[in-house]
Amino acid sequence: MNPYLAPGLILVVLLTVAIGAYGLRFARTTSDFLVASRSVSPSWNAAAISGEYLSAASFLGVAGLVLRYGVDVLWYPVGFAAGYLALLLFVAAPLRRSGAFTLPDFCQVRLRSRPLRRLATAFVLFIGCLYLLPQLQGAGLTFSTLTGGSYAWGALVVSVVVTANVAFGGMRAITFVQAFQYWLKLTALAVPMIFLILQWQSDGRPEVTPPAGAVFPVATTVVVEQDAVLNGVRPVEAGETLHFAAGDPVPTVSTVDAEFGDQWLLPGKTGLFATYSLILATFLGTMGLPHVLVRFYTNPDGASARRTTLVVLAMVGLFYLLPTLYGVLGRIYTPQLLMTGNTDAVVLLLPEAALGGGHLGRLLGALVTAGALAAFLSTSSGLLTSVAGVIFTDVLRSGRSGSIRDFRLATVLAALVPTTLALYVSDMDVSRVVGLAFAVAASSFCPLLVLGIWWRGLTDAGAIAGLVTGGGAAMAAVLVTVLGPPLPSSFAEFVGQPAAWTVPLAFLVMVGVSLLTGRRVPPDVGATMLRLHAPESLRT
Amino acid sequence: MAADPSPRSRTRVVLADAAARRGTADRAGTDLTEQTPIGEALVKGLMRAQLALALRLALVVAAGLGTLPLLFAVAPAVGGYRVFGVHLPWVLLGLLSFPFLVGVGAAYVRWAERNEQDFAALIRRPER
């Protein structure tokens, strides 16, 4: 095991706690925190939002997908970043001006409907759980990759640590902690990448897709985990150990879905429907994620909310340049992952694989792992806090005078379902599950926010109908994909990437039912619109 | 909105309200907070300007990025084109898309703030 690993991880946890404690000296209550953060500049605030946003799916999953499928999955990082542009164009400033802290709050402010609020709460809980699931999966995967321990223990340990942290306030969602996590994550990918590229240069720039097919760079041992067929001819059994010498070609494994050669290098393998579905889901889904919206409230006004979003877009875009490079270099230095299917681990394994087991490789390996830990901690803490907050106010109905004990109960409730699911669903690509969460958010909250902000005619009945049909359809598709049996391939695309039909469906139903129930438009819609759109400087 | 009736009704509202309140409240500001037809029209104008700006820039992104999958499907030869030894789709998606998105975002922030300044200037304009 890497000797730098444990000190590195402990250092991350200690620094996180120390910065959190430093911040706590200034902010003891929630409202203190909110007021304090209004003196925070957009760039600090943006680093905090990016820190919370860049999850295990971004840190590990994107590189894994690129390693496996090639150019077609580059739409994931592009979409994850472009989501902030959609948020900026249509939502950022008016949402901040609405004063809403969560999505149910926004429903209350705009449409004054209790049933809608409850429905929105249900969707926040579902999306929150769905988004927590891949974080825990990633944690389990990291744990089992690095220590050889079992996947379940890793997921369980991170879940318990994060739950305890949020429940006991050990790591409150403090701007500086999350901002620190962003810079840590960026450094943890950028610094090793510099050395990796230098190594690639000194190795004589080996081709990413050599014409003769991928080869092992060094002698490699692969343990077969399930029965499969190599290269379509040679059957192997679970538990069998395969030895490959340096320069041997990498065999294809029947149980692992991966692309090779031009299929990997050139676009067009994924169908147009699935690609556009993914684009819609990621472009429009970001604005509906529960932990993203909460942070917008920490901006002092609408104009700074816009500027913050722009900086977030730049920071997130900068970050997403790196996972692609890891996926590409993984093709050269860690081809055995294409045999085991454990492609999400490429970021963790690449430094040691490329730079050797010397001090440099191990040190950089520990740095990358520390970044992964920061990714789990920041995103799951942020998510858990916002989901627990919604359970606290809308499910337990504790109101503002609710006790800390109720909040702790809410935290445990919020953590329970995703943890249980993570123990059973271990074999899905981390980024795929996140893509599904985006699809649900894009077909439920995106139409609600966009129509609610820009169209006076939206009614509570229309909003409810749209959420139920569009969001419900996406939810059903996700449940079938995650829990159900494999579907026939012609049908699987529609269910596996539902956004291309669920998003238009949600918009159409919302507009149609609102037009039919035009009499239910809130009488004070003019005042609400004024509040959403007029600059704060005009308020008296 | 029609410009004809505005001077008359605006005068009436201001004389009634501004004096009664703080004495300093300006006409259009009162129109806004009091939800008069003129105030509504002003907010609608601002909303329309902001929405048109957002939609226009969304269209730029749809044309710039959204057409790429179609392009790669219709003309697969594009994928074989190389820039500095790297295939074009990798350069477009993995590298250039991010500065493009940031550029569009920066343009939006600039123009949206200008719209708001114009709106504020319209409200605060001294009516002499």
TrEMBL record, chain A:
Topology within the bilayer: Multi-pass membrane protein
Membrane spanning residue stretches: 6-24, 44-67, 73-95, 116-133, 153-170, 182-200, 273-297, 309-329, 370-395, 407-426, 432-455, 462-487, 499-517
InterPro entries: Na/Glc_symporter_sf, Na/solute_symporter, Sodium:Solute_Symporter
Signal peptide coordinates: none
Xref: PROSITE patterns: NA_SOLUT_SYMP_3
Main location: membrane
Keywords from the named record: Cell membrane, Membrane, Symport, Transmembrane, Transmembrane helix, Transport
Pfam families associated with the record: SSF
Keyword Transmembrane: yes
Localisation per UniProt entry: Cell membrane
PANTHER family from the UniProt entry: CATION_ACETATE SYMPORTER ACTP, SODIUM/PROLINE SYMPORTER-RELATED
Family per similarity comment: Belongs to the sodium:solute symporter (SSF) (TC 2.A.21) family.
Protein name, entry field: Cation acetate symporter
Organism: Actinoplanes flavus
From TrEMBL, chain B:
Source taxon at top rank: Bacteria
Chain ranges passing through the membrane: 53-78, 90-109
Keyword field: Membrane, Transmembrane, Transmembrane helix
Protein name: DUF485 domain-containing protein
Organism name: Actinoplanes flavus
Lineage of origin: Bacteria, Bacillati, Actinomycetota, Actinomycetes, Micromonosporales
